[in-house]
Each structure stands twice: as C-alpha cells, then as structure tokens.
Design a protein that fits this description.
Layout lengths: L5 H17 L2 E6 L1 E7 L12 E5 L11 E9 L8 E7 L3 E5 L5 E6 L16 E5 L6 E9 L14 E7 L1 H19 L5 H15 L6 H15 L9 E6 L11 H21 L5 E4 L1 H10 L1 H13 L2 E4 L13 H19 L5 E3 L10 H6 L5 E3 L15 E5 L5 E5 L12 H10 L8 E6 L10 H10 L8 E3 L2 H9 L7 E3 L15 H26 L7 H13 L12 H32 L7 E5 L5 E7 L2 E7 L3 E4 L4 E3 L9 E3 L2 E3 L3 E5 L5 E6 L4 E2 L9 E6 L15 E4 L1 E10 L2 E10 L2 E10 L5 E8 L5 E8 L6 E6 L2 E6 L5 H5 L2 E3 L3 E6 L2 E7 L4 E5 L2 E8 L12 E12 L7 H9 L3 E4 L15 E3 L4 E8 L6 E7 L5 E7 L5 E5 L5 E4 L3 E4 L4 E7 L2
Parallel strand pairs: 11-18, 11-19, 12-13, 14-15, 15-17, 16-20
Antiparallel strand pairs: 1-10, 2-3, 2-4, 4-9, 5-8, 5-10, 6-7, 6-9, 16-17, 21-24, 21-46, 22-23, 23-25, 26-27, 27-28, 28-29, 29-30, 31-32, 31-37, 33-34, 34-35, 35-36, 36-45, 37-44, 38-39, 38-41, 40-43, 41-42, 42-45, 43-44, 47-50, 48-49, 49-54, 50-53, 51-52, 51-54
Length: 998
C-alpha cells in the first residue's frame, strides 16, 4: 500500500492547527466589569472620577482616544482546581493591569488590532493566575485606551472578560505543532528531514480527532523525536533579542506613548519571570525618563533586570531622531544626553546606535559616533528601498570625514520578527554577507505598545535553539552579537557616503511649520549658549544649565522620526507647535536677559545698546535699533557698541541702489523681473556675467498634484502640474539701505506675499515669504535654472557637505531626485557658481542646471489638514565667482540663519568691564565654530569646531580671555590630551576643546 502524499499530510496538519489553538482555553466564568471613562488619562488615585459604566461583552465603553479605568471582579470557580487558571480579557483597545498601588503589572492588546499579519497576531489577552487559583477572589484594576496599536478605533466595545482554564498540554502541543509545520515548509524539498517531519505531523494529527489533555500528550510524544534532533556544526548562528520598537508619537499622541511604554515594559517583566532565557532590549532614554517620572515602581523593576543583564539599554541617542533634518549640534546633543542618561541611571556606556526606523542616514553620523565612543550601528530601514537593493547586511559604513562604524542590517528585514522557523530560514537565505560572516541578528516581538515578545515568540525560540534544519539561534544582547561580528569585519566591504532611503522623501517638506521651528530652536539655543558662555567669560556665573538642558531635551524629543519629518496625526502637531512657540519664546527671553547683562559688562551704560556676533568672522552690516539704522563692524564671536557705530541715513549715490517696476539693482547685482513676476535676469555686475540660464525664468511658483501621504509624493509629479501661482499685485520701493520688490500671488484659495530684497552692499537676493496655504493634496515648488555647467550639486549637511549627481544616468541617480540639504545647496563650476540658501527648508532637487526647492506640500494622511495654514520662510540666491569653497558659501548660509543681535544694557550693578571684545578667533576661513557651551560637569567652556571645505586645514584658536588652559576632548567631553597652539584638521573633521577660564 503506498504512503499518503505529503501535500495532503500537510493540508491535514494545517487544518488542525487552528483547532488546537481554539482548544487551549475553556472559559468557565464571566467577570463583573465596571469602567470609569474620561477623555484624558487620570492617575490611579482618581480612578473613580470618570463616567461610570457597568459592562458586559458587546457593550460600548468609549470613542477613539477615550481613556478609562476598568475594574474586573470575580471568584475563580472550584472547577478550575488541578488546572492552570487564566483570565481572558479583550476590551477592543489597549489595557494595562496594575497592582494595588497602581503600578503597571502587565499590558494587554486587542486581538483585532491592525498589524502586519505575516508577522503573526498582535493580540495579548491572557493573564496567568497559576495552578492553585481555585476559590481566589479576583479584583483587578486596569488603565485603558480606546485605540489599537496603530491608533485605530476598534468599536470601543468590551469583547471578553472571562475566567478560564488553560490546558497546558494542549498549549505546548500547539507550539510543537506550529514549529514543526513551518519547519517542514522551509527545509530542503524532498529531503529526509522534510519527509520525517511531515510524517510525524501526520501521525500526530491522526491522534487528534478529539483534542484533550490525554490526546495532546500522546501527540506530543510523537513530535518530540523530531523536535529533539539537533544541527551539526553551524555555518550561521542567529543572535535573537526581544524588541519592542515604540514610536514616541505617530498615529497616537505623546501622552499615549507614555502609557504604551508602561504596557510594553510591564509585559516584558512578566514574561521574564516565565522564561529564564529571555533577553530584551529597549532604546530611547526619553522613554525611560517617562517611566521614571510616571511609573517609579515599574522603573525600579526595570533597573533590576538591567543590573541582572537580561535587559539591554540600547540606542546611544535621547530619542531615535530623524538624521536628515536634525542639525549637527542637535545630533551631538542626542548622543551626549542619551549616553549620559544611561551612565547616570544604570552605570552603562552604550556602544550601539540603534536606529531601526528612520528615513535615511546622514553621512556625518559615522564621525559623530566614533567621537562619542559608539562603535556599532543597527538599522533595517534600507530594506524598504524601492528600486535598488542595498548591497550588504554587514559592512563598515564610512562617513564624509573617513570615520568608519561597523553596521548591521538584520537580514530578516524587520524589527517585528515572529521568531518562527520562517524567520530563521529567511535570515539564512537572505543574508547578503553569509559568504564571509557566521553571525546575524534577529529582533523579535511586537512594537508600538504591543508588549514586545509574547509567549508565542518565546515558545518558538525554546524549540528552535538548535533544531535540525534551521540555523541555531541564541538569545543574547546585541552588544555580544556585535562583538562577535567585529571579529569578522576584516572581510567586510566598506560603503561610503549617506545611506539614502529610496522612500519617504516627502518627509523633507511635510509639516513645514514644525521644520521652521526646529531650525529656529537649534539656532536660538546656539545663540543662547554662546551668550551665556560670553557672560561666563566676563566673570558672571549665571549660566542657565538646568533650563538649557530641559529645553534642549524637549527640542530633541520633537526631532523624533515621526514628528520632525511630519508623519504623525493632527494632534501631535497641534501639541508640538504649541510647545515650540512656548520654548522659542522662553529661549528668546533668556537670550535677551543674557545679552543685556553682557552689554552692561561690555561697558554700555543703562539703556545703551551693544551688537553681538556669534559667528567666527567679522561682520560689516546694517542693523536697526529704535527706528534708526547703524553701519556696524562686529568682531568675530564678540560685540561692538552701537554708540560707536556710524548712523546710517540711507543709501548713498555711489551704492547704485535702485528699484523700479521691473528691476532691483545695487553695485554688485541687477535683478530683472518678467511680467509674471518671475526673475528673467540676475546679472552679476562684479563678475560681468548672467546667472540665469538663457531664455529661462527663475523663482517661478509651480504647483503640482500630490496624491501622496506625509511620507511620499509621486515620483512622476513633474508630469502632473496643477498650475502656477499668478501674480496679482507688485510694488517696488527703496527702504533705507534696501531695494525691495513686493509681490502678491494667488492660486485657488491660497495666497503668497513675497518681499524680494537686495541690500545696498548685498551679494545675495533674499526672498522673504509669507504664504496662506489652503490647497489639499498639492505641492508648491520654486526653481532657479542657472547658467552653470556641472555634474554635481553641493549640499550642506551636518558638519560638512555632500556632492550629489545632477545627472540621471542610472537607477541610483534617478531614484535620488529629491535630496536633503540644510543652509545651502550650490551648483559650481571652477570659475563660477550659484547657491540657494534657506532658513528652514530641507527638500531640494538639482537636475542638470536647475536648482529646485520644495516649499510646501499638503497631503491628507495621517494629518488631513497638513500644512493648510499660514507659513513664513526665507530663501536667498547667491551668485558667486569661483566655486562654492572659494566663495565661502557656507558663511552666507550661516549669516542668513544667524542675524546679528542688538541688546540694551540692563540695570544691574556696574561691576567690572570685560577686557576683550572678541571671545574666540580662528585664522582659517574654512574652520567653523559650531558651538560654545559650558561643560556638563564643570564651569569650563566647550568649543566645537569643524572643517567646512573638505580639505586639510590648520588654524590657531585665540581667546579673548587671558590665562586659559586648553585641552582637546571628545564629543562626550572626555579628555584626549593637551591641545597644541595650532589645530590640524582632516577634511570635515570635528574637534572639541575644553577651555578652563583663568
């Protein structure tokens, strides 16, 4: 008689698996359920303050984002005696059980939550009571949110609240069966191993026509033989660590993230009690800080597991930030505050940057990491590329300065691994570097409030540890994995430059007001730290360390990779904009107070004004104060009295300043406008050449149809032009030392007003813009076709620049059409170039000779009113002789973003007068002083410098204060040794100095 065919054997086994799962639990008694519903979370002490509801399954308890305290009451029936008792709870929302003090014990998630079901089922509904619960009184409180994992509304009804029996033998059978069934589908076809596994599943299935404890035990005995077979010498070992990626805001507000953290972390701790091999890791000190503030008892339990070594703190940065848009010093502070938190709270130095989900990786990062003592990086987001596959999973990533960091992309291409046989099989088959590496990482669990790993993940791993047919898997921390990987790195390839994600380019522009505030906060904090450092050097010990750290950390929070990029729901941005406005106002207030004191110590009498310059070069500009204009000369990183400045009465005839209906002009530039308001000519009088391409028009506002979402816009948007903004009105004027053309545009219901400004001595044309944008699913861009021939565009990034192709010769160039730049983007040939500067824009395109800037876009998901608001921003065009290095374009970018500050002396005691007018001076024009701040742990100053041009450089650093001691430090402010009189820089190198004031 022939054997049954494998296809039917597997079919029988697959059909049986759901029946086994449904037989694990038997409800024996319903619990009494009461809920007290509120609109926002309330503490445990106020749990009875909401609207009281008595509930039975099917009853509605809330609407989206409602909160409630649930009470579950009952008595475990005697029928449970001899069996494991459990509670089955599903409220169609997220739930956190608490102890008698209100501290989180375990998180639960609705079964029907949105999720990628190829990774498993997201729900967690089981609460273990143990083997001796019969007769026990149940009285449990739980904090609830009426939303699923991804902020979706799932009816707001109670689904179940039962006391049940758990048939442990059937539960174990389910995982035995599931693991072997998947193994059979992933081992070699028609191999002996496959044949034996399929036969054992078939034999077990024949015993399970009736599923009970007895038949389950007999079936498990049949399966045990195949589960006990081990692999031989491994060619690849998988390191598995439990993971729960938690977005600090996304499809839910920040307040819900705090509760998601509590639900997740309490579930992790509960599972650690059941599974002694379980190792878990979590990133983002901000999340730990919230646990410390809101759930101190839970936090203490977390600290115990960290000390034990079963909970790994990960991530080196304060949050998992966007690394395209965040400024250079902000990324330094992410690492500084992140690492310091871990060291102060847990006594651990974190060595791994953990960024699984951000939308591309700046080429400045490797240097920041290496100078911060971070040796490794983990991400998986590059697996989302649309057109080109990233060539490696394990490689050395080299940044713009030549620094390298060992980088690993988990080959399963997810941070929500089900840790199933298919996971291990995919890792082995997909690992691009398996020819030179024997180690790969797997991140398993359910994130965003899903509690991380559930019992299903851990039960599978217990069976897969060394299961014949799969690569062996060991549960361990990621640092142990990276140290093994490091032993192999001599065989790895090097990838140089940015890690560009071929997706989500819309996030460079979406939610423009957030991005505007981010730039303003970064620049305001830089200015405030310089001002406070200046005051410190003047002998005034009033540095606002605590408040600065508080403001910095909140600014860093909003750089999280779904807030700053603009990919969250409406409420997230309503709240962030409110907080940004408050933080910016407070920073400006502190800045005014600090400069007022500095003005007094600079020798100004009460009410007299002083001009401050925080940039490291002398600035000759016109400033306005109390209705008058002054021509000032302010030394580098210093100050000058306005009383000594020349009062400016207006433009002189020799300046050539001129404005007419179609023209603005000074002695350097002549701007000619077309009838439609566009720029027909930008003539560089000093160079004797036209900057705009022949027959082309610049500063044309083009609107495109944009049916994308917050992350992405159509790649073929240029073929879907909706129209152009129409010039409605235009006027010109001479305003003191400025020639001004004011234009008013309209499109649909939207308006845009632009002041095009040419200063008397200006070499840039500035576009001061206000837009009232009301369009839906549209994108507004403006372009400048320039008369420059080059194959590359120069884009400022953090601590340097990237050269990117302006050609579209291959798929890599084609897909990288939208690019990120900070203060400037420039097209240069050896003798001439044109730069586009910006005070708050990040999305650009540069194809052939056209510089294009993405100003606004208004997608409808996940925020249906994204960017339908009033906006303000400034950009400028800078034609220059020589290339962008010779023309010092980076300085123009800094000057646009860092205006001189005028402050009147305060009424404090006169005291002594500062003996210097310039705090810091460097003698190399390509060396920038990015930050001046007080050291974290002393009253010394920290000076951060970097080389801007991509060349070798040396410079002296002169301090206005005498008797200083100078020491070079790393980005964590750890000493590296005495600094010499002159500093020597590698291309794009960052150096930090500790200056001990005399």
């Amino acid at each position: 008689m022939p054997y049954e065919i494998n296809r039917l054997k597997l079919h029988k086994a697959k059909d049986l698996l759901p029946r086994i799962r449904d037989s694990i639990y038997e409800p024996v008694s319903a619990m009494k359920v009461t809920a007290w519903v509120t609109k926002e979370p309330v503490p445990y002490s106020e749990r009875n303050s909401g609207t009281r509801l008595e509930l039975t399954p099917g009853d509605k308890w809330g609407n989206l984002w409602d909160c409630a305290w649930f009470r579950f009451e009952g008595i475990v029936p005697d029928a449970v005696a001899g069996y494991k008792a459990v509670l089955l709870i599903d409220i169609n929302g997220e739930l956190c059980l608490v102890d008698e003090e209100g501290s989180p014990k375990q998180g639960l998630t609705n079964i029907n939550s949105e999720f990628d079901f190829s990774l498993g089922l997201p729900g967690k509904r089981v609460v273990d009571l143990g083997m001796s619960a019969a007769g026990e009184q149940i009285d449990l409180w739980a904090d609830a949110g009426c939303n699923d994992l991804f902020g979706k509304y799932r009816s707001g009804t109670l689904k179940e609240a039962d006391i049940a029996i758990c048939y442990e033998e059937i539960r174990q059978l389910y995982y035995d069966f599931e693991v072997l069934l998947e193994l059979a589908e992933h081992v070699a076809e028609k191999s002996a191993r496959q044949e034996r596994v399929i036969q054992s599943l078939y034999d077990a299935a024949l015993m399970l026509e009736v599923i009970n404890e007895e038949t389950a035990q007999r079936a498990r005995e049949v399966l045990a033989k195949e589960l006990s077979k081990q692999g031989g010498d491994p060619v690849l070992t998988v390191s598995a660590i439990g993971h729960a990626h938690i977005d600090l805001a996304w499809l839910w507000p920040i307040r819900e993230t705090i509760r998601k953290g509590a639900r997740t972390f309490s579930t992790v701790l509960t599972n650690m009690e059941k599974y002694p091999d379980y190792v878990f890791g979590a990133s983002q000190p901000q999340l730990y800080q919230w646990m410390k503030e809101h759930y101190p008892k839970l936090y203490d339990r977390i600290k115990e597991r960290i000390t034990e070594g079963r909970w790994e703190v990960q991530g080196a940065m304060w949050v998992e930030p966007d690394t395209n848009i965040s400024g250079g010093e902000a990324l330094v502070r992410q690492i500084l505050y992140g690492k310091r938190f871990y060291e102060q709270e847990f006594g651990q130095e974190v060595k791994i940057l953990w960024l699984p989900d951000v939308f591309g990786y700046s080429a400045s990062l490797p240097q920041l990491l290496r100078k911060s003592g971070v040796d490794y990086m983990m991400t998986q987001k590059l697996s989302w590329n649309v057109y080109n596959t990233h060539p490696h999973h394990s490689f050395e990533w080299e940044g713009i300065d030549g620094s390298k960091v060992l980088t690993h992309l988990p080959p399963e291409d997810t941070y929500n691994s089900p840790s199933a046989p298919r996971s291990l099989a995919k890792i082995e088959n997909s690992y691009l570097d398996r020819n030179v590496s024997e180690h790969a990482l797997m991140l398993f669990g359910i994130g965003d409030g899903g509690g991380g790993p559930g019992e299903e993940h851990l039960e599978r791993l217990a069976r897969e540890h060394n299961l014949l047919g799969l690569p062996p898997v060991v549960q361990e921390d990621s640092l142990s994995f990276f140290r093994k990987l490091e032993q192999e790195k001599s065989r790895f390839q090097t990838y140089r430059g940015e890690l560009y994600l071929e997706k989500h380019q819309g996030t460079l522009t979406t939610q423009a007001r957030n991005k505007w505030y981010n730039r303003k906060m970064e620049k305001s904090l830089r200015e405030l730290e310089f001002a406070a450092s200046l005051l410190l050097a003047m002998g005034e010990n009033a540095y606002p360390s605590e408040e600065l750290e508080e403001i910095w950390k909140e600014t860093l929070l909003y750089q999280f990779h779904d807030i700053l990029p603009g990919s969250s729901i409406t409420r997230v941005f309503e709240e962030s904009l409110e907080r940004y406005a408050a933080m910016h106002s407070r920073t400006q207030q502190l800045l005014a107070q600090t400069y007022a004191k500095a003005a007094r110590l600079a020798g100004a009498g009460e009410g007299q004004a002083v001009v401050f310059n925080s940039l490291p070069w002398e600035r000759n500009e016109i400033v306005a104060h109390q209705g008058k204009r002054y021509a000032v000369k302010v030394p580098p990183m210093g100050f000058a009295s306005l009383a000594e400045a020349k009062l400016s009465t207006g433009a002189g005839e020799q300046s050539g300043l001129h404005a007419s209906e179609r023209q603005l002009e000074n002695r350097y530039l002549r701007v000619t406008f077309g009838q439609d308001g566009s720029i027909a000519s930008l003539y560089d009088k000093a160079a004797g050449r036209e900057s705009i391409g022949p027959g082309a028009a610049a500063n044309v506002f083009t609107i495109y149809h944009d049916k994308g979402d917050a992350w992405d816009f159509p790649r073929d948007y240029r073929d879907a032009v909706a129209g152009r903004m129409k010039l409605e009105e235009s006027s010109y004027s001479i305003d003191g030392h400025q020639a001004v053309m004011e234009q008013q545009y309209k499109f649909g219901e939207s308006t845009l007003v632009q002041r095009i400004v040419l200063d008397e001595e200006g070499t840039t044309v500035r576009f001061e813009t206000k837009a009232d944008w009301k369009e839906a699913e549209k994108m507004l861009r403006v372009s400048f076709p320039v008369q420059v021939m080059t194959d590359h565009v120069n884009c400022e990034i953090q601590f340097g620049y990237l050269k990117r192709p302006t050609t579209r010769n291959n798929m890599i160039e084609f897909v990288r059409d939208e690019i990120c730049a900070h203060q400037y983007i420039d097209l240069s040939q050896p003798d001439y170039g044109v730069a586009l500067l910006s005070d708050s824009k990040y999305g650009y395109s540069a194809e052939r000779n056209v510089l294009d800037i993405n100003l606004l876009r208004s997608p409808s998901y996940p925020d249906p009113v994204a960017d339908r608001a009033e906006h303000q921003f400034v950009y400028a065009i800078y034609p220059h002789r020589g290339d962008f290095i010779q023309a010092e374009v980076y300085r123009k970018g800094y000057e646009l973003n860092t205006p001189l500050t005028v402050a009147e002396s305060d009424q404090g005691a006169a005291g002594h007068t500062a003996s210097f007018a310039s705090l810091i001076q460097v003698d190399n024009p390509h060396v920038m002083v990015e930050a001046v701040k007080k050291a974290e742990d002393t009253d010394d100053l920290i000076i951060r410098l970097y080389e801007t041009s991509g060349t070798f450089a040396d410079t002296s650093v002169a301090f206005g204060v005498t008797g200083v001691e100078i020491e070079e430090v790393d980005l964590m402010e750890n000493p590296l040794g005495k600094a010499v009189d002159r500093l020597t820089f590698q291309p794009f190198e960052i150096k930090s100095l500790r200056v001990k004031l005399g």
